[in-house]
Structure prediction request, 574 residues.
Amino acid sequence: MAAYRYDYDVIAQWIAHGEKVLDLGCGDGGLLRHLIETRQVRGYGVENDPEKILACVKNGINVIQADMNRGLTGFDDDFFDHVIMSLSLQAMHNTQGILAEMLRVGHEAVVSFPNFGYWQHRQSILNGRMPVSKSLPYQWFDTPNVRFFTINDFEALCAQTGIAIHKRLAFDEGKVIVDEPNFLASVAVYRLGRS
Amino acid sequence: MLEPPAACQSVGVVEPQTARFDEALPLRSGSHLDSFELVFETYGKLNAQRSNAVLVCHALSGSHHVAGRYAGEDENSGWWDNLIGPGKPLDTNKFFVIGVNNLGGCHGSTGPRSTNPATGQPWGADFPFVTVEDWVDAQARLADKLGIECLAAVIGGSLGGMQALSWALQYPNRIRHAAVIASAPKLSAQNIAFNEVARRAILTDPDFHGGHFYAHGALPERGLRLARMLGHITYLSDDAMGEKFGRNLRHGKAVYSYDPEFEIESYLRYQGDKFSRQFDANTYLLTTKALDYYDPAFEYDDDLTAALAAARANFLVVAFSTDWRFSPERSREIVYALAHNGRNVTYAEIDSAAGHDSFLLDDPQYHAILSAWFGRIEV
Prediction:
């Protein structure tokens, strides 16, 4: 996911110095390493892939092996300042459950995901094929993604489940998209709270 | 001639040493020992800054003989030999590794077999109860004697993991890292129940003589054998046992006998027999009680997060998927309590079929994690 390092910078802007941060689906710990270096956070990652766990240990990142689909039951309410899920929400079965858990254990949640409504994806569907792009780099038969949704879908879910959208930034290839993000943005990053 | 590859050598031939302590050691039971001895082994070299020492704590049946082998013995290599040595995860080219037999043990440290100075007879059942905390106090005295102010790490599996955790609570400034493997913050009722059955087997053996069997020239082998057989069942997973022994019959068919017919029966009897000849019954009783009593949260109204607030070390916690004696759930309790104290902690749950015994095996993921974790420790 190195191609999307720009979402690290966006996320870092929303994190204050010295915060307690939880990164769900933390991979090799790259984002946490970035936040430790730029924001001196006290960070923990959650991951369930043995190779990524090993990579985190090699990188000196606190990582807790757990299956996020089973919730974050070990963590106390409101323990973290921010709970982050970077480009992983689309790979979670229990979408509503994990969003609720993020806002239970964290004061705010930061979520980024690939926008299925991106024009190139729509074009691909119109041409009769599932999209394969920088933000959705997998073939339909080997993708880890299980939920395909657009920016508008996500915002509708937030409205329906009482999640407050504090901030949204949308991007195409690292460029901020202000107009028509549901059509023109490949990735969206949200700052969410309890309403 | 080419040098053998640097990776994964044995520490080679090792020799135990004995340290004597003449300052009284107060014990959690309210009793004390006026003096005591600890037998220990070391591997690798203590560096000039004395900053590379790693203490390895043993579990119920372990000892100070953690790695290497004794001169003239090709068998009987140390119980964690696959972990410790030049190029191994706990690399003796970098670390000075210490294995110590715990107080109350039966491998040379002061214990029930030792002479009670008050009577001139073996302590037997009169040896005072010792706890995990007492063991750690005694280990700290050994560190003093070796001139080690601060340990780079303490590592242990099972009951040894409890000691590593306790080190971080009792001596937060004397331990930089703690590896707590296949362990728990306290035993469950089921776990205590298994220990109690094992103890009853020993205590009701007519050869136990109230713990003073040495004076009677007797050994409560039957009791120890049953205790060990029961233990072995709980150290393996159902799957591992099924895979290893299944329903295999020694004679290929039922012969209608109470002699061992199924392979699992032979295995348990072999393990029980071997253990009952080597291990001390009083040590077994003491050690299972130390396991049962360990509960750092007890004085904190069962609040483990509060109990672990004193810890300063960086932690690695490892559990194994099929370990039902010390299940992953129990390790997670330690992990979350440490995280809620803002401590550095990493938790790996290793997919392994071998049950509790997994912590002694060299599963590639498990050893890769340990190797990476030890590799980052600065000395």
Remarks:
- Chain B has ten helices and twelve strands.
